[in-house]
Structures are given as structure tokens and as C-alpha cells.
Design goal:
Helix content: 40-55%
Distance between the termini: 33 Å
Number of strands: 9
Strand content: 5-15%
Radius of gyration: 18 Å
Shape: globular
């Protein structure tokens, strides 16, 4: 087993403030995986959560070998409320100081063309599961007097987004939840961060037939998010998120919705039922 690499002061800050263990949902791919890799390099023990057990086992083996950290894996379907409850019960006694709720998925296309079951499952994963995690771990961290919770919003969560209506609505919920919890839990030593990226190169674009332009790299989004934890309430990692957030923020809300609809149409191309088929992704 390889020894851990020397830690820089900034990395030591995260481990001191939010260690010793981090729970990461959506850990098999994208930003969740990048957070797992970076936190392991900083000395965190990890609990990796995603639906793909094989991918998690491979990642866990690599992180143990490269960094000498302890890694557990869980492969529940977090769209199932009972699976969320089981995960919370299973991890109840573990010293978790950081929760990274990166699991989520979205759909593109006209809302009425989407399978209702899939849209409701999206709400269960993006909203209900996130709320359950934040509630239980918020209680635990408040009692402990320290901890951090990272929730994943999105650039589309600051206004409605035609052709991704349900996904944008779920991310608006997450953004609002994070803002409220940040104020409530800050006096108790708990930091809550909303991470609101724009397009991220996670495989979502190719599966959706979307042209993402200069998508941000997951590792850079993860690094920006971890760097902002405990220092900001919302972070917009990536150039596009910052640029689009600034330009859209200058417009009245109704115009922002129309502008976002044009952006989504441009990314999806010909919006149809085929293009709007449910597309799962492991990060926001």
C-alpha cells in the first residue's frame, strides 16, 4: 500500500475542519468521482455511494492503494426512499464530517414528452434524497459542532429552463435549500455550500446529443467546490457558469427564462421526444 503524499496547508484545512470521513453520492463518475479522488489525496476516509457497485469497487481499490485511506462502498438506488433510509442507518455510527451530495440526473426535451415516472424519480433523487441526507447529517454535525455539506445546484437553477423544466426546478429547490441551511447551521459550526456549475464534461452531453461548447472539467469543478467550502455560500465553478450567470443576472426573470430556453435548444439541437428521453448523469 502506497503511503499518502504530503499535504499542503489548504488540504490540511479541509481534513481538520471536515474530517475524518466524507460521504459522497454520485461517486462513480463526474464531479462526485473527482471529489472522491481529491479528498482521498488529502487523507479523508471515504464512503462512496452510487448505483454501479463495480465502478465503486474499482475506484475504492485505486484510492486505497494510492492514498492508504479507508474506503467503504454502498450501491443503493437513491430514488427509493427506503434505500436512503437504509444508507442513513448503515452510516449512523461513522465519523462523517463531510457530505458531498453529487448524485442526480436530468432530462432534456419538452416536459409533456417525458415519461412521468422518470420525472418523478428525478424529483425523488435530486430533491427528496438530498433533503433526507441534509436533514440527518445536519443534525449529526450540529450535535458535533462541526462539519460540511455540499449540495449541487446548477446554472439552470436560478430561473426556469425550457426543455429541461423538471431538472431546473429540482436545482432551484437545491439552491434555495442550501441558502437557508447555510444560515441556520453556520452558528453551530456547520458549513453548507451550494455548487452551481454550468456545463460539465461528464458524458452527459454525448448521451443527450448536446453540444456543450467549452464544458468545465470535473476535476476543476471539484477543486473549486472544495476550495470554497467553509468560505462561501454558493460557488459557480467554471468560466461558462460565471459568464452566463453574470449575463443572465442582468435580465428580468422572464427574459432569463426565454434566454435559457434558447440556450437549451442550442445545446440539444432539434428538441424531440428522442432527444428528450431521460438521460441519467451522476453529477449536476
Amino acid at each position: 500500500m502506497a503511503p499518502s503524499s504530503p499535504r499542503r496547508p489548504a488540504e490540511a484545512r479541509l481534513l481538520q475542519d471536515f474530517g475524518p470521513t466524507a460521504l459522497i453520492t454520485g461517486a462513480s463518475d463526474g464531479i462526485g468521482r473527482a471529489c472522491a479522488e481529491q479528498l482521498a489525496a488529502q487523507g479523508f476516509d471515504l464512503i462512496l455511494v452510487a448505483r454501479s457497485r463495480a465502478l465503486l469497487d474499482d475506484l475504492a481499490f485505486t484510492l486505497r492503494e494510492e492514498h492508504g485511506v479507508h474506503v467503504r462502498v454502498h450501491a443503493p438506488d437513491l430514488t427509493d426512499p427506503e434505500a436512503v433510509t437504509t444508507l442513513l442507518e448503515t452510516t449512523d455510527a461513522l465519523p462523517i464530517g463531510l457530505v458531498v451530495a453529487a448524485a442526480g440526473y436530468g432530462s432534456t426535451g419538452r416536459f409533456v414528452d417525458q415519461p412521468l415516472e422518470s420525472e418523478l424519480a428525478m424529483i425523488d433523487l435530486n430533491c427528496r434524497a438530498v433533503t433526507a441526507l441534509a436533514h440527518r447529517f445536519g443534525q449529526r454535525m450540529q450535535a458535533r459542532g462541526r462539519g460540511g455539506i455540499m449540495l449541487f445546484g446548477s446554472l439552470v437553477g436560478f430561473q426556469g429552463a425550457p426543455f429541461s423544466a423538471t431538472y431546473a426546478a429540482t436545482k432551484s429547490f437545491v439552491q434555495s435549500l442550501a441558502e437557508g441551511l447555510a444560515v441556520e447551521l453556520r452558528p453551530h459550526g456547520v458549513s453548507v455550500l451550494s455548487v452551481a456549475p454550468g456545463p460539465v464534461g461528464t458524458g452527459f452531453a454525448s448521451r443527450a446529443g448536446m453540444t456543450m461548447g467549452k464544458a468545465a472539467r470535473p476535476d476543476r469543478v471539484a477543486a473549486a467546490a472544495l476550495g470554497a467550502l467553509g468560505r462561501q455560500g454558493t460557488v459557480r465553478p467554471g468560466f461558462q457558469s460565471k459568464a452566463l450567470g453574470w449575463s443572465l443576472g442582468m435580465l428580468p426573470r422572464g427574459m432569463r427564462v426565454l434566454a435559457m430556453g434558447r440556450i437549451m435548444q442550442g445545446m440539444v439541437g432539434k428538441v424531440s421526444k428522442t432527444a428528450g428521453d431521460n438521460i441519467r448523469k451522476s453529477v449536476s
